[in-house]
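Homework help thread (please don't just give me the answer)

Our assignment gives two proteins as sequence + structure token strings and asks us to describe the second one. The first is just a warm-up. Here they are:
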Amino acid sequence: MLLGSLVHVATVKPALELADVLAAHFADYLKVAHCTAEQFAAVNAILKCRTAALGGHLRECDVCGRVQLVYNSCGNRNCPKCGAFERAQWLAQQGVKLLPVPHFQVVFTLDHRVNALAEVNPEAIYDLLFSTANQTLKAFARQYLGGEIGVTAVLHILRQAQDRLWGQTLQHHIHPSTALRTGLHCMVTAGAVAQTQSGYRWRKSAPGFLFPVVALSQQFRDAFCTGLRRLAQRGELRLVGACADLDVAALSQAMQARKWEVYIGKPPKNHRPETLLKYMSRYFRRTAISNPRLVALENGQVTFTYYDNREPDAAERGQPKLMTLPAVEFIRRFLTHVLPFQYKRVRHCGLYASAKRAVLGVARGLLGQPAALPQPPKLNLSEWLATFVTGDPGACPFCGVGRMRLGREFAPIRGFALWLLILLGLPVAGRPAAEPAA
């Protein structure tokens, strides 16, 4: 009798997932392209995620005694299977830090011609983007509000279609809105803490207005181009590959001669900052593509869905369409979204920076809150799952009466043992989605 008929695996494997594409064609990709250590690590983690190769734990019913195997997740931030619970925990933790005032959404975008430099020098370009946006916002806060604002910024890398459509088609770019490029989504307080002769006071921005967007865009553009030239003069940019013959001074001058777009969105209608924070959390640990968007993997071609922003639907999301790419090109585009090792995608500036905790306490007091921050909540995985999973995730799928209790852990299964389990019929990569739970 096959082992798969005796041992039940709770982990479900999607019909088609990114790991399938990588397993079938990553070796082909390595024949024609270079892969960084971070990209290798991401691919290795995705291939093993929720499989016997990462080990797992047992779940046992306290009534009928039936046992399930549950495989561990990889936890890599580039994995489309991971990150949902971490995103929810981040949202809960950040929520306690928010000041009880409306927040504007400000999105900074870069000229698309910096993309080649960003691909070769991701850390330098992304750091420059963060610092320039922060400095520009601080300068405008002093000029228009006379004080210090709070900012939470999240790096987002958008994809571009081959026909120059801006949509979810995996071309490397850094983004602001559906029509732009590489960018930074920022939550900005609609007011600032100002220090006057009589002490601190809270100065609110005008309703629906934060800063003049044209002037903000111009100052951001000029500061970024100046910073880019400074990086080149210091020799801090690697000019190799497609950038080998690049004249950074000429590039920055050409970009500075063009109009850059910065978007300032009004606070949500309910004025609750949690609404905007929830939207921002979509970009926290967001991967380049999710498994449900994959449609087919056939004859070395990957077909996936994307949204055509030229044809917006009722929700202004764009009409869903299909795109087919060679698997090697698909993998290349996916890997361009892998950030440098331990690179911080989310940063807090101004009042929300960790170094400004005392000033944040002053702001909270001015707004009628206790100066000390409340203890951030720690989510329970089972309770969190119950908020969106149909049925009781802790109920026994066999008898329907008992509760599944966490049992022993087991180590990663590799090498000969892994192949033996495959021969015996155990679904080491998770049971197929169509297979019944019990």
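The one we have to describe:
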Amino acid sequence: MRFTGGCLLLLACGGSTFSPGSSPGVPDAPVVNNDENPYEKATAKTAPCTPPSSYRLPETAVKSPLAVPLSADMSRVRAVLQAVVEDHGRDPANPWAIGHAMLALGPDLVLTNDQPAIDWLFAEYADVQKVGDQVGLSFPTKKGPVRVEPHTDLLLKALTETGVSPDREVVVGGETFTVSQLYGRSLCAAWIDGERTAFGSWNDAPWALQGLSHWAPNDLAWTSDGNHAMTLDAWTHATVQKLTHETSFMRDAMGAGTVVQKRGQGIFAYTCGGAHLLQGATWAVGRGFGEDSDRAAIAQEVSVLIWRLDVELSTVDAALAQHPDYTVILLDQRMKFLGHFLESVHKAAAIGLFNPTDDEKVVIARAEQELIVTVDAIVEKGIIKELKKLQSANEQAYLDYVGDAAHALRGIDLHTGVGEVRF
């Protein structure tokens, strides 16, 4: 089997963590630094913060105008990915995977213990946080050895994107709350001030921006913990500026017709290659936040993503030839980029922020074929059948496969018009 990039796929066994440095690429995994909720240090000294009294919820479900019919090959690949998500994303002991499974399969997900996913997540993993007169909910980074929310507000983003109501009742510590109390606590903890953020780094902020903009009323403003005066317009614009800064070297290369080497610079240093930075900014701008210029900036950033296809695939394919012992991890790298690629392009198109050129449509179609080839290679390698063994040998690689399968499944559904975006 050969990839379209011309690099022979070397189906060799490899289960150790791949980190040779620069050009072959480093796995984009959920990074966990400690057992704390990233917001907890900020809540030690607080200012009064009042969450919104009402929400502006998405009113319609829209499909991508770029959607194509579901082909037989894509249907086969979709079935493989759905099985991965259903078999491994409904594990009650893996809340991070549950959040990804909800993204792909919907908010009515039922876990292998027959419990509704939403109820289980809150009952088992959420914390109650009282700040002043406000009582809110939060999810920690970890609970003991269990990874809950390695990226702040990852679960809020999953809940809002899949259509959960802010009035949905949940039970935490034997008391009844609503999902809006998770939103309110997250909002009051969130702030961005140049390179300083409540999230520890810009890499950890996009999930919060997308989740909070999902329900935010127009002109949302608040004073966060630590007396940071914030508006969602300012946060959104700052995120767009950060995104364009991190991809500036790519736009320069596009204009000059030169080649970019992937060496961990700029956007390459972000989780999932910056896909979530793009998606968070896209969603907030699509919901009407930021400045007028941000809409054109997002369209340009999606074009940059499309241009990146050859950069990403050539890098991974070269690494497959040079490092056959890391085939297991490198195949996931391929699936990671392609799944997030389809997801990002079709989300932007669905909410009216991107209209591709004819040449870009050709690249999008090629991404579909590349994803088919990649998943077929993963199956041929026997990786799917051995995921449980991979979990024992390399938990990080296992988590990547489950999460990236969920994003690829979501990308396929948006690409083929099976999936919708609530907007």
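TA reply:
I won't write it for you, but here's a hint about the kind of observation we're looking for: The longest helix spans residues 293-322.
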